[in-house]
Amino acid sequence: MILGIETSCDETAAAVVTEDGEILANVVASQADLHARFGGVVPEVASRRHLELIAPVLAEALDGRGVDAIAVTSRPGLIGALLVGVSAAKALAWSKRLPLHPVNHLHGHVASLYLKPLDLQPPFTCLLASGGHTMLLDVQDRSGYRVLGTTLDDAAGEAFDKGARLLGLGYPGGRELDRLAAGGDPHAYDFPVARVPGLDFSFSGLKTALLYRVRALPPAELEARRADLAASYQRAIVRALVERLEASGAGRVAVVGGVAANSELRASLPGAALAPLPLCTDNAAMIASAARYTEAVPYPQYLSLDARATAA
Questions:
Q1: Range of the domain at 131
Q2: 215 & 287 share domain
Q3: In total, how many domains does the chain have?
Q4: Residue 23 forms part of a structural domain
Q5: Which single residue of 64, 249, 251, 291 could bond 71 by disulfide (Cβ 3.0 to 4.6 Å)?
Q6: Residue 6 φ/ψ, nearest 5 degrees
Q7: In-domain check, residue 309
Q8: Quick check: 114 and 103 in contact, CB under 8 A?
Q9: How far apart are CA 202 and CA 196, in angstroms?
Q10: Which residues of 232-263 are buried (b: 16+ CB within 10 A; e: fewer)?
Q11: Contact at 8 Å (CB) between 214 and 222?
């Protein structure tokens, strides 16, 4: 059994997963309410909260179970937040003389598809869309992936969050914008979809277009048209994602990451393998899942392991 630990952003998470991909425990302590007052994640606040939560979250996930290995997100993410998880993982592994698997957070998102009951088998093309990353990946086996395209500026999840802020919605913005959009007309406004070379993405121009629309409307009209703006803006983001998938010529398609929870995106890809909703946002089960296909660092060599803010 593998204990997974995830602290790359604002969720303190721990999970226990078996070698064949069954989730025995998956505990996630969200900091969304804590950061809502700031309109987004404050790195130092997130790090301090991870320090408070890591021990009780680990205790709840383990619940007296013994494990054979430990996996932890070591990159990419907020460096202070990552260090909390990496330090906890090293201490636990060292105290029990267990092997330690440092896991790339992005590989973790893809590996959420390998957990039961979905247990998706490669090859497939994977759209990874989250708050910090938007990527198109060629997945030939479970040990990794090849990047086909990535965002040139904002990630799709970041575009959702910034759009929600422009519309006066709460945090986390993607969920609130999705909820508001359900009552709006997605064809009310024709927002641009950036067409950049290859299979890359761009969302900064779309965000600017929404800003200009919001500024042009008087307060009363803005309030009356907020749902239409949200629906049209959401449609443009989803169109950009779906069009890139179609341009890739992919046969089998999978979608992972926080944006995979968006209702319109899920409806727009009826034939795709979609990460289960509880595994779309950051969690530790996906980290433990990825560890099944990575090489462990043996005791005690991982004591020199460090966190890295970037994926490379």
A1: 122-274
A2: no
A3: 2
A4: yes
A5: 291
A6: -135, 120
A7: no
A8: no
A9: 7
A10: bbbbbbbbbbbebbeebebeebbbbbbbbbbe
A11: yes
58-62 long-range Cβ contacts below 8 angstroms, 24+ apart: 58/3, 58/5, 58/14, 58/88, 58/92, 60/14, 60/25, 60/27, 61/3, 61/14, 61/15, 61/16, 61/25, 61/26, 61/27, 61/284, 62/3, 62/14, 62/16, 62/25
**Tens digit of each residue's pLDDT (9 = 90 or more) over 164-220:** 999 999 888 999 999 999 999 999 999 998 888 899 999 999 999 999 999 999 999
Amino acid at 272: A
Tell me whether residue 30 is in a domain: yes
Residues belonging to the chain: 312
Q: Is 237 found in the same domain as 152?
A: yes
Question: What's the whole-model pTM score?
Answer: 0.95
For the domain that residue 73 is a member of, what is the CATH number? 3.30.420.40
Same structural domain, 238 and 285: no
Tokens of 223: 């309030």
Q: Are residues 109 and 147 in the same domain?
A: no
Same domain, yes or no: 130 and 31: no
Please state, as a whole number, how many other Cβ atoms lie within 10 Å of the Cβ of residue 63: 10
Task: Tell how many helices (H) and how many strands (E) occur in the chain.
Answer: 10, 10
Q: Are 181 and 234 in contact (CB under 8 A)?
A: yes
Structure token pair of residue 59: 């205790």
132 CB contacts (<8 Å, ≥6 apart)?
A: 9, 76, 77, 155, 157, 158
Same domain, 167 and 262: yes
Q: Name the one residue in this structure whose structure tokens are 């992005």.
A: 106
Each residue of 131-178: pLDDT tens digit?
889 999 999 999 999 999 999 999 999 999 999 999 999 888 999 999
Residue 20 inside a domain? The answer is yes
